Amino acid sequence: MITDETKLQRVNPTPEIYEMVIEIIGTTSDGNQLSARHLELTQSAINGFCTEEGINELRRVYQMVIDNNYVDWFHNIEGMVLKNNGYVKYKGEILDHYSFTDWKAEHAAVIELYTRCQHIELLGLKPTQHNCVHYWQRYAKLQPNSVGSANPWVKDDFICGTRIWRQIDEKHYNHYFHNAIVETIGTNAFMVTESETDTSDGQAVYMAVRESNGKYYAQLMTLREFKTRRYEAITEYEYTPNWYCGIEHMFRYYDGRIRWKGVMVDYDADLGNEKITPQELHTRCLHIESLGFRPSMYSCIHNWHEEYKDIQPGTIGSASPWVHEDYNWDTPQWRQISEEYYDLYKDEIRPLRMGGNSFLGGDEWNHTEDRQSVHIACKYEDGKCYAQLMTLKQYEAYINSKQ
To answer: What letters, b where the CB count within 10 A reaches 16 and e where it falls short, cover 117-133?
Structure first.
């Protein structure tokens, strides 16, 4: 019988242990196919530094090896492995190199890396060092099947050998045509001169752009390829993501973050949050969008009951939550409010500035990144009352513009 005390005792090497280690090392190319921790485990077992728990783990590894299904997922994340040389791989692709000595720091880094992998896969792309590490910021806010710029999509297609024409919008088509020198022009097809990268044999790779049936497309290729492929038939490409609970535009990441169209709207790992079903969260997101706002945790969770649940599009009353949304998303505009609230904001706390038919309230509603106070500015114009959040400096600039 194994007690808690015997679990902590070191186990001397036995013939069974020697046989298991020899089989494990021999079957895994001298241990090169083992994870770093399992390679260390075999060494500790031979040297008599293993506890009973360590020997049980050795037996588990031995069984996987002889069954030809050995795997040791890094931090229990499926597809993620740490090689003996410190390189972290995801689904066989090297993504990063770790040399942590603190387990918690390493775990946090692995979770962040895996979350990035999930996002890249959500886009229909293959996680690589290029998109998960070196140029992550170019991908962080992208959404599946979005039509806009050719980059970074075409670069990933080229790196991974995906030969497809990516749809782009007319704005970027015109940008490539008018603002970049064109190397070769065909009928509704051209190639931008500036080289994007090179092939393995040193050929320059450029961005090819074309128009077909009223749509615009781009792809990276060599000049030789362009001459033969610029008129080929285009197969429309659209990736179907694995949406959270089948709800389009909603995705749950490994760390618990739930995003709607790229914006975090819930965090189900946070015990302080209200627990709602994905379907209820979806309903809230649609309601927030009907108001003309972008769903967020602020609107869908933290202030849902107090400020958003019962308001309807076009409601004229309080300035909140309308002006908060405009400020948070950097879309400043004058929002119509009721005369009752206009008077309330003017009389509740003495205004910082007042003159004519406008004033800047004395109460601080928010603050900028550099700690400037943000207040509610109100005006009376053409028989209607309006409000907007702004700093004292912005309000004074507004007043000066009216003079």
So the answer is: bbbbbbbbbbbbebbbb
| Token pair listed for 11 | 């186990």
- Residue 155 near residue 168, CB atoms below 8 Å: no
Mean pLDDT, residues 81-109 taken together: 91
Cross-strand bridge partners of residue 167:
217
Instruction: Record the tokens describing residue 91, joined without a space.
Output: 């689904």
Q: What is the pLDDT of residues 173-229, one digit of tens each?
A: 999 988 777 677 767 899 988 888 899 899 999 999 999 999 999 999 999 999 888
pLDDT band at residue 165 using 50, 70 and 90 as cut-offs? very high
CB atoms within 10 A of CB 366: 15
What residue ranges do the domains of the chain occupy? 4-72, 143-229, 260-308, 322-402
Q: What is the pTM of this model?
A: 0.76
Q: How many Å apart are CA 103 and CA 173, to the nearest integer?
A: 48
Q: Distance between CA atoms of 280 and 304, rounded to whole angstroms?
A: 12
From residue 258, how far is each of 41, 124, 254, 287 by CA, in Å? Answer: 38, 18, 9, 17
Distance (Å, rounded) from C-alpha 295 to C-alpha 289? Answer: 7
Q: Which residue is listed with tokens 């031995």?
A: 62
The runs of H, that is alpha helices, within 67-169 are: 103-122, 129, 153-159
* Nearest in space to 342 (alpha carbons), one of 394, 312, 384: 384
List, in order, residues 6 or more apart from 197 with CB less than 8 Å away: 155, 158, 205, 220
Q: Is the pLDDT of residue 337 over 70?
A: yes
